Amino acid sequence: MPAGPQAAPPQVGERYTYQPADGKPHGESHKGSPLTAEMTELDMDAGTEVYVLDLDADSGWPHLQWTDKKGLPRITTFDPDEFAGDFQPLP
Amino acid sequence: MTLISQGQLFQYAEQQALQAVFRLVQSPAAAATYMALSQTAVGSLQSTETTMAGATISEYATSTGYARQAYGPTSPTAASPSQLWNTAQITWGPFTSAPGTCYWGIVCTAASGTAANTIASFLLASSRTPGVGDSLQCAAGTGAAGVGFICQV
């Protein structure tokens, strides 16, 4: 069976938008159920703009820099396979 | 005995500080420092660890969504002892799998990688065990004891 199209790997220094297929915030999607109000406030919503800061020196996974709903800078490591499906590059 | 306690410099930073203040070498160039989270049990973290590869460091795994966060310290206070602390809230996560229980914050010299040098350790007021989807947050420092990550020399 031929492999499907390969999504582009994250590019350091590029900007992307978080657009998961299920439309749910990142943490809630992984938990599979709603988070507490406090944790929802700290979650990464669909539509969040991220910047690929660098790749983890050990695992090679991308470090995404973004700003949370409180206006505070965050860095979150992402599974590259998940990244390929959930992020769209910004022009 | 080389066990470390709250807000203490690691050996790497102690040497750098002494070299700088006694004019043996130039101080390190200005650069960002990063706060890591460690699962090492209280009483087991060794002050002789010079890198994040140390056997007693036990940092959270990046496969959980964890990443080191910028520390962003204040300028040292004009007081004796002198202190500095994190200027803003620091938040890790959201975690995509349970990362375990953390007991320590460790400031180091790089955003990732075990080659990063260790600077200082901070014992959390109480251990934290975030679940899937959770984030972990530390308050901004104010200079008051128990608020933020305060380092004192």
How do the strands and helices of this protein lay out in sequence?
The complex is a heterodimer of chains A (91) and B (153).
Chain A: E1 15-18, H1 26-31, H2 37-41, E2 49-55, E3 62-67, E4 73-77, H3 80-86, E5 87-89
Antiparallel strand pairs in A: 1-2, 1-5, 2-3, 3-4
Chain B: E1 8-9, H1 11-21, E2 34-38, E3 69-70, E4 83-85, E5 90-92, E6 102-108, E7 118-128, E8 136-138, E9 150-152
Antiparallel strand pairs in B: 1-7, 2-3, 2-6, 4-9, 5-8, 6-7
What does this structure look like?
- The complex is a heterodimer of chains A (91) and B (153).
- With 91 residues, chain A is α+β, with helices and mostly antiparallel strands.
- Chain A has one domain.
- Helix content of chain A is 20%, strand content 27%.
- Chain A has a five-stranded antiparallel beta sheet with strand order 4-3-2-1-5.
- In chain A, strand 3 and strand 4 form a beta hairpin.
- Chain B is mainly beta and 153 residues long.
- Chain B has one domain.
- Chain B is built from one helix and nine strands, in the order E-H-E-E-E-E-E-E-E-E.
- In chain B, the strands form three sheets. Chain B has a five-stranded antiparallel beta sheet with strand order 1-7-6-2-3.
- Chain B is globular and about 50 Å long.
- The model of chain B has no long low-confidence stretch (mean pLDDT 94).
